[in-house]
């Protein structure tokens, strides 16, 4: 039921109560709660729509705007290359960095080629290979996260998608070089986590980050796939929610209306955060980086109650 319909119902009840002299305070409280739930669902779903907007900048859009001399590297040295995971070397204000990113694809043909950004095991193994190379040469690592999740196909399961993500979680947590992660669109489940372990984790203002998609949550927990809007509110997937839970370190503002309205401005905001953080993180020894990175990971989900 829409908020307008609920408000109309409240007016009808109030008028009826006045005429009959009946106390309807409990019914009014119920309707007010329903309005709040509906407003939260609408707000959460708007966030989902912005994160999935077809014109929203993808990883390569930001890479081409933020970095110079980007050179893409391919292959996991075991099975093959995964176009859903873009990895390479570039310069950020004359500082060499390693870039690891999900890429969904803009056109239909590109989305098919890149599997809509859903990486296979070879994608995560390529990412780890690049990360270990960055550690060897003391290059900072920057990851751009934008995926609904890892690819759940039969071939991916046969080649060990679960093992490849788990290995990334373990090894990224121990890498002796600065790691900055930016969730630019959708951060979905283990597919996002496989490249989202870092010293600093940021979300764009209208990005989302969740253990499952709203549609999947609605189907499994609510037993009704049409209640995806309600599931989005229940999951608490917005950048402000994740900031409240201390899962991320900060929120990067977007141009008014979303990053797709002004990709250049959005890229400039990300670039400033990256440049400042790399300068700061590079001051610390590798051992200090690893220690604080692991402390941060262990604090996620830890609560204090009075």
What oligomeric state do the depicted chains represent?
Answer: single chain
Helix run count = 13
**Fraction of helical residues:** 40-55%
Unreliable runs: none
Cα radius of gyration in angstroms:
22 Å
Strand content: 15-25%
Distance between the termini: 37 Å
How many distinct beta strands? 8
Question: Quick one: biggest sheet?
Answer: 8 strands, mixed
Described by the principal axes of the CA atoms, the overall outline is elongated
Order of helices and strands: HHHEEEHHEHHEHEEHHHEHH
Q: What is the structural class?
A: alpha/beta
Q: Mean pLDDT, rounded to whole units?
A: 89
Describe what you observe in this structure:
The protein is an alpha/beta fold and 306 residues long. It contains 13 helices and eight strands. The protein has helices at 3-20, 25-51, 59-66, 108-113, 121-136, 154-158, 161-172, 189-193, 214-220, 228-235, 239-244, 263-281, 286-299, and strands at residues 68-73, 85-92, 95-102, 141-147, 179-188, 200-204, 208-210, 250-252. Strands 1, 2, 3, 4, 5, 6, 7 and 8 form an eight-stranded mixed β-sheet that branches. A hairpin with a 2-residue loop joins strand 2 and strand 3. Helix 1 runs antiparallel to helix 2. The model has no long low-confidence stretch (mean pLDDT 89).
Task: Jot down its keywords.
306 residues; eight-stranded mixed β-sheet
Give a brief outline of the structure:
It contains 13 helices and eight strands.
Give the helices and strands, then pairings.
Blueprint: H1 3-20, H2 25-51, H3 59-66, E1 68-73, E2 85-92, E3 95-102, H4 108-113, H5 121-136, E4 141-147, H6 154-158, H7 161-172, E5 179-188, H8 189-193, E6 200-204, E7 208-210, H9 214-220, H10 228-235, H11 239-244, E8 250-252, H12 263-281, H13 286-299
Parallel strand pairs: 3-4, 4-5, 5-6, 5-7, 6-8
Antiparallel strand pairs: 1-2, 2-3
Helix pairs in contact: 1-2, 2-10, 3-12, 5-7, 9-10
């Amino acid at each position: 039921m829409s908020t307008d319909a609920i408000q109309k119902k409240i007016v009808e009840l109030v008028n009826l109560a006045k005429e009959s002299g009946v106390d309807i305070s409990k019914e009014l409280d119920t309707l007010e709660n329903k309005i709040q739930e509906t407003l939260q669902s609408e707000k959460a779903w708007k966030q989902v729509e912005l994160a999935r907007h077809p014109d929203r900048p993808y990883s390569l859009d930001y890479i081409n705007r933020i970095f110079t001399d980007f050179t893409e590297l391919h292959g996991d040295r075991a099975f093959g290359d995964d176009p859903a995971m873009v990895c390479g070397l570039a310069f950020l204000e004359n500082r060499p960095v390693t870039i690891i990113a999900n890429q969904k694809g803009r056109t239909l043909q590109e989305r098919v080629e890149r599997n809509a950004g859903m990486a296979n095991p070879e994608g995560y193994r390529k990412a780890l290979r690049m990360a270990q190379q960055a550690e060897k040469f003391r290059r900072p690592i920057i990851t751009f996260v934008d995926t609904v999740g890892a690819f759940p196909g039969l071939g991916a399961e046969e080649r060990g998608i679960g093992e490849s993500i788990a290995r990334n979680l373990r090894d990224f947590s121990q890498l002796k070089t600065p790691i900055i992660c930016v969730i630019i669109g959708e951060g979905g489940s283990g597919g996002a986590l496989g490249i989202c372990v870092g010293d600093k984790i940021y979300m764009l203002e209208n990005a989302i980050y969740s253990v499952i998609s709203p549609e999947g949550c609605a189907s499994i927990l609510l037993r009704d796939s049409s209640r995806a809007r309600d599931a989005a509110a229940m999951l608490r997937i917005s950048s402000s929610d994740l900031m409240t839970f201390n899962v991320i370190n900060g929120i990067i503002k977007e141009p008014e209306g979303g990053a797709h309205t002004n990709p250049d401005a959005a890229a400039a905001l990300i670039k400033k955060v990256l440049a400042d953080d790399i300068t700061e993180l590079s001051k610390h020894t590798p051992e200090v980086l690893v220690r604080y990175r692991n402390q941060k990971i262990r604090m996620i989900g830890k609560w204090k109650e009075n």
